[in-house]
Write a structure and sequence with these properties.
CATH topology of the largest domain in chain A: Phenylalanyl-tRNA Synthetase, Chain B, domain 3
Number of domains of chain A: 6
CATH superfamily of the largest domain in chain A: Phenylalanyl-trna Synthetase, Chain B, domain 3
Helix content of chain B: 40-55%
Order of helices and strands of chain B: HHHHHEEHHEHEEHEEEHEHHH
Largest sheet of chain B: 7 strands, mixed
Radius of gyration of chain B: 42 Å
Shape of chain A: elongated
Helix content of chain A: 25-40%
CATH topology of the largest domain in chain B: BirA Bifunctional Protein, domain 2
CATH class of the largest domain in chain A: Alpha Beta
Strand order of the largest sheet of chain A: 27-30-31-35-34-33-32
Number of strands of chain A: 39
Number of domains of chain B: 2
CATH class of the largest domain in chain B: Alpha Beta
CATH superfamily of the largest domain in chain B: Bira Bifunctional Protein, Domain 2
Largest interface: A-B, 88 and 83 residues
CATH architecture of the largest domain in chain A: 3-Layer(bba) Sandwich
Structural class of chain B: alpha+beta
CATH architecture of the largest domain in chain B: 2-Layer Sandwich
Distance between the termini of chain B: 85 Å
Shape of chain B: rod-shaped
Largest sheet of chain A: 7 strands, mixed
Oligomer: heterodimer
Strand content of chain A: 25-35%
Number of helices of chain A: 20
Number of strands of chain B: 9
Number of helices of chain B: 13
Radius of gyration of chain A: 42 Å
Strand content of chain B: 15-25%
Strand order of the largest sheet of chain B: 1-4-5-9-8-7-6
């Protein structure tokens, strides 16, 4: 929404001297948020009315002339110009030497600080100023249709102007345009009157609405037109009036200027009137050429499915039966609330017009507009849901303007099909409740003063407010509280902290576990990343998932932003691999990332219940380090959240996007808590990571289940430890984990530590074999271990290892 | 041995001690003079050759000489040790400006850092941190928040739908309803989380972003309490001199509603690039919970009232850490992350 400040001032004369900044700031604080303002006279300095007294040829230039211009000073000013359209007696805007204009005459983007005009010589002849084109004045022919295509702006029929007057004011450029962000509930504020009403209450000044007097001759519009509304749900009200003997021509200066200041191009008097009233009242109007309305009958009905219709912009549309049509006796002449038809357009030959001011169902208009891909000013107004009681006021205003402008004869009476009259709402006045909600101590009188200034009617006897129908947003006491608060000033309300029962702030156990896991990941050198929750279904193939892999059962977004963002991830690794690849492409070395990423696992598809939103801690890196670096980081994380039992690794994890020989499921207390491995080289190729990369995924809900921050001191061992080294060769297929399992099982509580200190593969050992060497530390909590005790354990270990196929090296 | 000989011996010992250059030489001297077979031991032994009455006197002289030599030898030993330590230290000088060998610590995402700050502030004020589902029912995201079917606000939020019933939540406000439906009153909660809207990814928008919802419900919660709470929040987050400004606004689920600006924490309100010359920066939306919303969740609006607010996490992070482009937050470039 935007308004000319001068237009608002015309309705609120009490703020005539106010500048745009002061106005905008105050309006923002009372709820009509000003986004910015544009001063139309920015960079226009020392520009006055001049009258050309004489013109003579330039002695040395064919295309230049020398003008003597009366600018209200004692002596005429000599100005040299190349403009082709000057003539003696012309009244023009003149910028005096030392003044400033907004831009060049070619209409290109004006410089930030305008252009300074100095006196100078043109081909040897002194020139003391410049006559201005509309572009030099910072505007355009769009907004000033009477300006010439090429040349100086020339005032026509402006007997009110005399040389030396302020030309900026004469052009209506002494104005500022305020751009507002109006919230969707304030339909009434999408109009000059609505904004002016807010301004009047904001500044405590009187609102002077246009006085609409009775218009029309002794005839009756009903004799010219018949209106039948077949879908009253979609068209609660339809009003029509007739103007005949139309004289199409330009609208007057003042109207053109007001339209132009709002960014609407003046076209002709009738169209301008409908636009003017739309701006002023917030009620879109349409004018039909009455002679094109067959059977002098308007029928408001739905379109038929597949019906074709050409709007006045020449576009043909295919309609359907959800859309509302304005028809004559034969065919549609307009799409209700959106655009009229080419077949009923006002042309220069129009003799009589039918004005329409109606109220349509906002949702229906919105849906129709969306289906047709159309977006008109009228449509965006109707979409908000208009007050049907405003329609008659607006159409009367339009007819008044027709009479005022002398562009036609208004026929008396109005055809008004208004099936269900909208009655104003009643809200009981509860000043105590308003104070209780706001935390204020305002008097009832003060509240009544504010609310009645907003045109709410208070009945002292019943204690009830009657809400005008244009304030559809006011429905209950809390709404009245907001009206009181915003004019009292949010800034004037106290700042207190909530009273009442004190409460303990708290975060969940899960929160604490996640926090510790993040800290440990960071301690291990991993930085936190974040990636999107949705991704492309192509990811499944990129990750080499089998066709029947259950991770392919992803939740699809019905209206995604393209295929790449169309499914909710079921695995957390694509974001990680993409981030690693991006870093790799940007030549960042040794990148380690982690993410706490949700995956979304549907219980059934299509979705009938909330899916399982599982948080996964994903770690990924490339560069320095290997599988065991990742394994170490994963184990540090588990340690730090109190998961201190042994983690076992099952190499048969079957994860398609990891290296088949370098991957494992992680098991804790017999349950899978995650997996890790080297990224499959194919997958690295697909994502564009050269070299090796590693991933680990820890299932956070499982971690939270197993985590504990309970700690108990077990004392420091009092008795000495015994260490034994044990060295062996074994087939590579026998895993260290298996060997350690035997060692642990056989030594029971005596084993304090089992440390692998050497692994060797090579020529001294047979093909397919490797050697492993451990240091075992034994200790008893309650006595000094005897050699015999340790020997017994060692014998059992050695015998069991032999059984496993391990050769002990002596 | 007579006294003169003893004197000579003592002087010889002291001379050798003075001239000793290192510890081993000193040790040799100690053995030669003070050892079991050393000269002083021999001198003591020679007492036997003296007449009985001379023995005590001469014995005392020998002892004095011996302890003098011992003392000097100890002194020399200390001096030599100090010298040796000094030499060692001199030889061990390093260039302390060579690079450190560091554990390369990882870095936390700026969104997360901002979130932790916000959580800390509200937990300190007695709020509980709760979560809600990202794949949400239409009812909780819209209807229960006073946004019925066909309400234009539904369009404004450009929702991603999954089915007619399920959608990607466009706001964390649905958590308000889940919490209220538990009927455990009073409520003081914040709920951070991921939300989604059909915006193209650009410098200031992302289809996937985060909000933090706040909700307080009790018997006498007022708009003034909302103001006071947010003023405290702004001070703790942006600095003690931060002021807030509430502008009337509209949200379907609060009434009265407001948008909140904070005085620019970079320029203090004078106007700078960060606040685009305004002196104020918009950071959140808030209001008094609409009675209809309370009612729909089964809370009696005649008895209870409360306030709610919603903050964009990315907005806070970008403002606070002066991040100029939303893309950075989701690209995970290590050169970006390392700055936090």
């Amino acid at each position: 929404m935007r308004t000319s400040l001068n237009w608002i001032k015309a309705l609120v004369p009490g703020i005539a001297d106010m500048g745009p900044k002061e106005y905008m700031d105050a309006m923002t604080l009372s709820g009509s948020k000003g986004e910015f303002y544009t001063e139309l006279d920015k960079n226009l300095e020392k520009i006055v009315i001049g009258k050309i007294l004489s013109i003579e040829k330039h002695p040395d230039a064919d295309k230049l002339v020398i003008c003597q211009v009366d600018v209200g000073q004692e002596e005429p000013l000599q100005i040299v110009t190349g403009a082709p359209n000057v003539f003696e007696g012309a009244v023009v805007p003149v910028v005096l030497a030392g003044g400033r204009v907004a831009g060049g005459h070619d209409g290109s983007t004006p410089p930030e600080n305008g252009i300074k005009i100095k006196k100078g010589k043109l081909r040897g002849v002194d020139s003391y100023g410049m006559m201005c084109s509309i572009e030099e004045l910072g505007s355009s022919r769009e907004m000033y249709p009477d300006a010439p295509e090429n040349g100086i702006y020339i005032f026509k029929n402006r007997d009110d102007l005399k040389p030396g007057d302020d030309a900026v004011k004469a052009l209506g450029l002494d104005d500022a345009v305020i751009e507002y962000e109006i919230t969707s509930n304030r339909v009434d504020c999408f109009s000059i009157i609505g904004i002016a009403r807010e301004a009047a209450v904001t500044f405590g000044k009187e609102l002077k609405l246009p006085e609409v007097t009775k218009t029309g001759n002794s005839e009756n519009a009903a004799d010219y037109i018949d209106v039948e509304v077949r879908d009253t749900d979609l068209c609660p009200r339809y009003t029509a009036r007739i103007c005949k003997n139309i004289k199409i021509g330009p609208s007057p200066e003042w109207m053109q200027r007001r339209l132009a200041s709002q960014g609407i191009r003046p076209i002709n008097n009738i169209v301008d009137i409908t636009n003017y009233v739309m701006l002023e009242y917030g009620q879109p109007m349409h004018a039909y050429d009455l002679s094109t309305i067959a059977g002098n009958k308007i029928i408001v009905r739905r379109f038929m499915d597949g019906e074709k219709f050409t709007t006045l912009d020449g576009q043909e549309h295919t309609m359907d039966s959800t859309m509302l049509a304005i028809c004559d006796d034969h065919e549609p002449v307009g799409i209700a609330g959106i655009m009229g038809g080419q077949n009923s357009m006002i042309t220069r030959d129009a003799d009589a017009v039918l004005f329409e001011a109606a109220c349509f169902d906002g949702t229906n208009i919105r849906l129709t507009g969306r289906k047709l891909g159309m977006h008109t000013d009228a449509q965006s107004m109707f979409e908000k849901g208009l007050d049907p009681n405003n329609a008659s006021a607006a159409i009367d205003r339009a007819c008044q303007l027709v009479e005022m402008l002398g562009c036609g004869e208004v026929v008396g009476g109005m055809v008004d099909v208004y099936s269900k009259v909208k009655e104003p709402l009643q809200i009981p006045f509860e000043p105590d409740r308003i104070n209780r909600l706001l935390g204020t101590d305002l008097s009832a009188d003060y509240m009544i003063k504010v609310l009645t200034a907003l045109e709410l009617e208070y009945n002292e006897e019943t204690g009830v407010f009657t809400i005008p129908t244009f304030r559809q947003d006011l429905k209950a006491t809390c709404d009245l509280a907001e009206e009181v608060a915003r004019f009292y000033g949010y800034a004037n309300i106290d700042s207190t902290l909530p009273s009442g029962q004190a409460m303990a702030g708290r975060v969940s156990f899960k929160h604490i576990v996640h926090d510790q896991a993040k800290r440990t990941a960071e301690f291990c050198g991993f930085s936190q990343g974040m990636t999107f929750s949705f991704e492309s279904p192509k990811v499944f193939d990129m990750l080499k998932l089998a066709p029947d892999d259950m991770h392919r059962n992803a939740i699809r977004i019905a209206n995604p932003q393209g295929e790449d963002y169309s499914i909710m991830r079921t695995l957390p690794v694509n974001g990680m691999l993409t981030s690693l690849a991006r870093n790799f492409n940007r030549r960042n070395k040794n990148v380690k990332l982690y993410e706490i990423a949700k995956v979304y696992l549907p219980k059934a598809l299509p979705l009938t219940d909330y899916p399982d939103e599982r948080e996964e801690l994903t770690l990924g890196f490339y560069g320095e380090g290997d599988f065991y670096t990742m394994k170490g980081a994963a184990e540090e994380i588990l340690q730090s959240i109190g998961m201190r039992d042994i983690v076992t690794y099952d190499p048969n994890a079957g994860i398609p996007f990891l290296h088949p020989g370098r991957q494992a499921d992680m098991l804790y207390e017999g349950q899978k808590i995650g997996y890790l491995g080297e990224v499959h080289p194919d997958v690295c190729d697909t994502f564009g990571i050269k070299g090796r990369a590693y991933l680990a995924v820890l299932d956070l809900p499982k971690l939270v289940e197993k985590a504990t921050f309970e700690r108990h001191f077990k004392g420091i061992a009092k008795y000495p430890a015994v260490t034994r080294d044990i060295s062996m060769t074994a087939k590579k297929s026998i895993l260290a984990g298996q060997i350690e399992n035997v060692i642990r099982r056989d030594s029971g509580s005596l084993l304090e530590n089992c440390e692998l200190f050497d692994v060797y593969e090579g020529s001294q050992i047979g093909e397919g074999f490797r050697s492993l060497a451990y240091t075992l530390t034994f200790r008893a909590q309650d006595h000094t271990l005897e050699d015999s005790e340790v020997n017994a354990v060692m014998d059992k270990i050695i015998s069991d290892l032999s059984e496993l196929g391990v050769n002990l090296r002596k | 041995m007579n006294k003169d000989e003893l004197k000579k011996m003592e002087e010889e010992a002291l001379r050798q001690i003075r001239e000793a250059e290192n510890m081993s030489k000193l040790n040799e001297i100690r053995i030669a003079f003070l050892g079991k077979k050393g000269q002083f031991t021999n001198a003591m032994k020679s007492l036997r050759d003296l007449p009985k009455e001379e023995r005590p006197v001469f014995g005392q002289v020998v002892n004095e000489a011996r302890s003098n030599v011992t003392e000097k030898l100890e002194e020399m030993k200390t001096a030599l040790a100090a010298k040796a330590r000094e030499k060692q230290l001199e030889s061990e000088v390093i260039d302390v400006t060579l690079p450190a060998s560091r554990m390369e610590l990882g870095h936390r995402h700026p969104n997360e850092i901002a979130l932790e700050e916000v959580e800390r502030i509200f937990v300190g004020m007695g709020y509980e941190v709760v979560e809600g589902p990202e794949i949400e029912k239409d009812y909780y995201n819209f209807e229960a928040l006073n946004i019925p079917a066909n309400h234009p606000a539904k369009d404004e939020q450009d929702t991603f739908y999954i089915t007619k019933e399920f959608l990607l939540r466009t706001q964390t406000s649905g958590t308000q309803v889940h919490e209220m439906e538990k009927h455990k009153l009073p409520i003081r909660m914040i709920s951070p989380g991921r939300v989604f809207r059909a915006d193209e990814l650009d410098a200031t928008h992302s289809p996937n972003f985060h909000q933090i919802e706040g909700l307080v419900i009790d018997k006498n919660i007022t708009f003034a309490d909302l103001k006071g709470t947010l003023a405290e929040f702004a001070k703790q987050l942006f600095g003690p001199d931060t002021k807030i400004k509430l502008r009337p606004h509209h949200f379907p689920f609060t009434e009265p509603s407001a948008e909140v600006d904070v005085s620019c924490f970079k320029c203090g309100g004078k106007g700078c690039r960060l606040c685009k010359g305004e002196g104020w920066i918009e950071i959140l939306g808030c209001g008094m919970v609409h009675p209809h919303v309370l009612e729909m969740s089964g809370i009696d609006p005649n008895e209870y009232q409360g306030f709610a607010f919603g903050v964009g996490l990315e907005r806070i992070a970008m403002l606070k850490y002066e991040i100029d482009d939303m893309h950075h937050l989701y690209e995970n470039d290590i050169r970006f992350l390392k700055q936090f």
